[in-house]
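Risk mitigation, structural track. In case the binding assays with glutamic acid fail to produce interpretable data, a predicted complex structure has been prepared as a fallback.
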Amino acid sequence: MTVITRFAPSPTGQLHVGNIRTALHNWLLARHAGGRFMLRIDDTDAERSHEDYVEAIRADLAWLGIVPDGEERQSLRFDLYEREFQRLVAAGRVYRCYETAQELDLKRKVLLGRGLPPIYDRAALNLTEADHAAKAEAGEKPHWRFLLNRDEAIAWQDGIRGPQHFDPAQMSDPVIRRADGSWLYMLPSVIDDIDMGVTDVLRGEDHVSNTATQIQMFTALGAQPPRFAHEALLVGTEGKLSKRLGSLGLSALRDEGIEPEALIALLARLGTSDPVDPALDVDQIAASFDLSRFGRAPARFDEAELHRVNAAIVHRLPYARAVHLLPPGMGEDAWEAIRPNLEHIGEAADWWQVVTGPITAPPQEQAEREFLAEAAAALETTGADWAALTAALKESTGRKGKALFLPLRQALTGRDHGPDMSALLPLIGKDAAKARLAAAAG
Ligand code: GLU
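Fallback model:
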């Protein structure tokens, strides 16, 4: 059976790292199995859903290179929900209720006050057709609950949490439809998962109790429930879901110079104890993606670690992949010389400026100036060949180590550290190098 996964965001805000991790893991799960990954826009809540967010979700996934194999939108599927709902009505698996929020709240408080679990008492199940007719007459519209089967024990083998058991007698029948006819999340999601042939539902552990309820919805609709896996929530370094993490979107990370490959590499492993593999090839990451590696402890998202992974990615990023972020004129040789010194591609511009000049070199002592004058002359024979130049100068001056290299680096780049001079010097070129050495010699 082809594995089909889905990512089902509600377009009520920007995706944050937590959602992105869920999207990525679903994509990797499908890719690992040679299956399909679907995007489902959960926009049944017309008031809170916005088209801008739908577009932002698509753009974020595209930036990450996550290409869904298909897209569905809940707001375009109301006919299907209505049909399936009517089947549940006919089967007696949904029922009409009229309690107000205040009444329900009161019922809950009474139960809690008696030390009992606040389970809905199913009072509305006792209403007769005459009662319903009277309510309709009085202009009262019902909301609908799904009738849990209290004799049907709920169990599943969770892909991350292991065996799960729920007693339906300890659960409230969930409200699935509001009095105005609009849908709550629960039932449309199940109808879609059936219709889309979803085989694996992978989502956050905040959905565990929803899963317990939804499993009965699958069976009530005559479908085999999919496999379920629930991931531990993402927390910040300070140990809780920080405000920053909850709102940290891709645009902020992109502005900080984070590359999609870095985010993918880190998020693919977050929640496992496996080391991050800073691989550019997502198939390599997908190949080793394995839900059984994930633990139940909260997954810690550390921005400093993301920047470290980013540096590792940048150090191996091919020119063709980086070129659109590089200053004009900066070629492949320059990229390869400079990238080992970068944490973010944006810093390449600084080093490219060092190559193209002008630079400001620190003033030198008399002895160094004489040495640099000699270097300028030596360049004439060695050309922009660092090994040849330094070998010749070592020979003629007896200098070695720092005394040999540092004044040259300072005169040629204006800095004490930086990319390998043997790669940098040919980029600067013989004439410019000679001029810089001569300038520093005074
Ligand atoms: N729209 C739901 C959410 O964002 C989807 C949950 C699910 O994956 O079923 O929480």
